[in-house]
């Protein structure tokens, strides 16, 4: 920005017809750069807890597992197929969310869900 400031000063000194516009552009550029610096500082100084979602995936998985376990067994083939599909979906969700739950460090809990 220093070099641009020097060039803007030259335009004023040499009485360039757009010197005022260039000076105004420099002011706006400096403001944008300062805002970007502030955003950068804010983002890169976030503490771990500020940047993490506050969702308790363990509780969500427990609720889903309880719902599946509390359902009765199907009496006919279409019902059983639907229940198998629900269990397969739940298994896929557990596998997809395992890294997020693992981040909490509860290895035994993850193993019990995946078993």
From TrEMBL:
GO terms for cellular component: cytoplasm; intermediate filament; membrane. SUPFAM superfamilies: Spectrin repeat (SSF46966). One of its GO terms (biological process) is intermediate filament cytoskeleton organization. Signal peptide: none annotated. GO terms for molecular function: cadherin binding; structural molecule activity. It comes from the Eukaryota. Keywords: Coiled coil. The keyword Coiled coil applies. Residues 1-44 form the Periplakin/Envoplakin N-terminal domain. Belongs to the plakin or cytolinker family. This is Periplakin.
């Amino acid at each position: 920005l220093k070099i641009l400031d020097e060039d803007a000063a030259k335009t004023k000194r040499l009485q360039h017809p757009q010197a005022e516009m260039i000076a105004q552009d420099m002011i706006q550029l400096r403001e944008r750069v300062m805002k970007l610096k502030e955003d950068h500082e804010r983002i890169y100084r976030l503490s771990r807890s500020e940047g993490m979602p506050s969702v308790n995936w363990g509780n969500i998985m427990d609720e889903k597992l309880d719902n599946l376990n509390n359902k009765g067994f199907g009496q006919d083939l279409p019902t059983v197929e639907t229940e198998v599909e629900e269990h397969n979906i739940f298994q896929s969700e557990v596998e997809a969310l395992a890294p997020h739950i693992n981040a909490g460090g509860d290895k035994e809990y993850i193993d019990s869900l995946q078993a």
